[in-house]
């Protein structure tokens, strides 16, 4: 793989940096140490650096040797509330927090590109390095946008990438058009009436109501939407009770919806409300539905998707680039930025095979110079386009 030589020369430093981030993971909006290191390095390399954008977000601005276009590159910095079980020598030192989605590598790859571009400046226009907090459902992209990200740092195009543990090192994929699902998170609070478990007739049992409601929720996808429409409604949490002999007073059901068609999403939100209201009326209890629209549908610009693949091909070879055929039902808050500025988001395959968000996830550090080279070539190519 023709990784950029200058970047290959400091690949070991990138690995050390990535492992340091890995050892010290931080949850969304708490990336104080991580963003501090990012800002320090950017400044060390002579890059104009702005901190505190979207709370812990950092933006670096680097001008090339002549007038040209502005291209934004974005990496996320946050970790997940997972207890790491990899036994790596550089495993998380923070209990209950782990870089299980490899955002440590994304931050490192973007830093790797920034260093190279600051040293070489062999491009026209402006490179905007966007280090985003809180990608994992905590609204980091929206926080940066609310702080005027693209008003203060206008971009003509933006690009992002995600490591992909598919056991195919250097395989780069982009899905033009709709690529990743929009997502809602919901909580359904059932306020019923508890009793002694031996006298259930005295209660309005929220557990019976909750289990019935979960079963009804399964009909939303299977009986309201065409089988050809990609849609997911998953209940992922039920919380109630604390004793063997007590029927609790309350129960909370939580979960997520993943969709591509906003009309379908609106219908699903309505069905959840209607089913909850029907249950409340049938059992004489109070049921409140709280729904939060967390992620937009991620839409890659068709033309820029192919532009990104062409640039990636220079690094990994044409045979290693692929137009991803299927949408992913996972979500990604880079979608919010792509609503404002056209761009594309790719996956970069690596030798790891444990899935993302698993407590045994292991990132392949060989991906670091590859991602950094793709980012760097995007600036050198697209600022002049
Ligand atoms: Ni991720």
Short précis:
The chain has 385 residues and is α/β, with parallel strands linked by helices. Helix content is 36%, strand content 27%. It has two domains: 5-179 and 297-382, 3-Layer(aba) Sandwich (Aminopeptidase); 182-294, 2-Layer Sandwich (Alpha-Beta Plaits).
Poorly predicted ranges: none
Number of separate structural domains = 2
CATH superfamily of the largest domain: Zn peptidases
Give the total of beta strands: 16
Can you characterise this structure?
The protein is α/β, with parallel strands linked by helices and 385 residues long. It has 2 domains: 5-179 and 297-382, Aminopeptidase (3-Layer(aba) Sandwich); 182-294, Alpha-Beta Plaits. 36% of the residues lie in helices and 27% in strands. It has 11 helices and 16 strands. It has helices spanning 5-9, 11-23, 32-44, 103-120, 140-146, 149-152, 206-224, 262-283, 302-316, 334-338, 367-382; strands at 48-53, 57-63, 66-76, 124-132, 157-164, 172-174, 177-180, 182-191, 195-196, 231-239, 246-247, 250-259, 286-295, 298-300, 321-323, 343-349. The strands form 4 sheets. Strands 1-2-4-3-5-16-6-15 form an 8-stranded mixed sheet, sandwiched between helices. Strands 10-12-8-13 form a 4-stranded antiparallel sheet, covered by helices on one side. α2 (11-23) runs antiparallel to α4 (103-120) and α4 crosses α11. The protein binds nickel (II) ion.
